[in-house]
Design brief:
With about 250 residues, the chain is α+β, with helices and mostly antiparallel strands. The chain is built from seven helices and six strands, in the order βααββββααβααα. This is HNH endonuclease family protein.
Length: about 250
């Protein structure tokens, strides 16, 4: 049975492609569907498994020192070829059966888990406590508040912080399929964000793309590092240097 909305969620992708739904929807009751107070976004340093919402800035000197120590753990190597990459190598999107990550097999797909985790004022498809049809999102990448409706699906997209094709070029081509499925559906690696910002990012690493909102860039670097460390995945030397720079190292 599907867990209640209070058990925050996971995943990440373009909201387009959602199945057709009736025009009638219902408000979420309690839990993550209730408007949350200001500051609900969690610092990545306080959210190592990615189950809490958002991406709060890394602010003080102590946090920046923690951020630097984490980034220093990331290994580096050259970016390999993209030969053989296919999204299907990471399982179908957004599967609920990627074992080994939070919220797997909870009866709701990864995309909707992530929307519930980060969204406020959620509304669900009639008869469902999983499929989100509208929400309010505080987008960490641009600082905008987005009033999303299914009719404007592409306005919010689920971003893989470490892009899947990037991971392929940094060694995931040699991982087991199970490990690739974990990366693709791990809430640690997923953020619902402004669609145009996500499209601009594409499969870039930090040296080529950073969030437009400068205040969130250290937090973004930390999250990128958290994913890299968890999956024992190197980044390019340029990406690591950029990550360090964002945190004042």
């Amino acid at each position: 049975m599907r867990r209640g909305g209070g058990a925050a969620a996971v995943a990440v992708v373009l909201l387009a492609g959602c199945e057709s739904i009736p025009d009638v929807d219902v408000p979420a009751s309690g839990g993550s569907g209730a408007p949350a107070p200001d500051g609900r976004a969690a610092s990545p340093l306080d959210n190592p498994d990615g189950t809490r919402p958002g991406l709060a800035p890394v602010r003080d000197a102590q946090e920046r020192a923690e951020a630097a120590a984490l980034i220093d753990k990331v290994a580096t190597k050259g970016r390999g070829p993209k030969t053989g990459y296919d999204r299907d190598e990471y399982g179908y999107a957004w599967m609920d059966t990627a074992d080994g990550v939070p919220l797997a097999r909870n009866g709701c797909d990864t995309r909707n888990d992530i929307l519930q985790r980060d969204g406020q004022e959620l509304r669900f498809r009639s008869g469902s406590d999983c499929v989100v049809v509208s929400l309010t999102l505080a987008d960490p990448y641009t600082g905008k508040t987005i009033e999303w409706r299914k009719q404007q699906a592409s306005e919010v997209q689920i971003d893989h912080v470490v892009p899947l094709s990037y991971s392929w070029q940094m060694g995931a081509s040699r991982w087991s399929e199970a490990k690739r499925r974990q990366l693709a559906n791990d809430p640690l690696n997923l953020l619902p964000v402004d669609g145009s910002a996500n499209s601009a990012k594409s499969d870039s690493g930090p040296a080529s793309w950073l969030p437009p909102s400068k205040g969130i860039r250290c937090a973004y670097a930390v999250r990128f590092a958290q994913v890299a460390v968890k999956y024992e995945m190197p980044v390019t030397k340029a990406d690591k240097e950029t990550m360090r720079e964002q945190c004042g190292v």
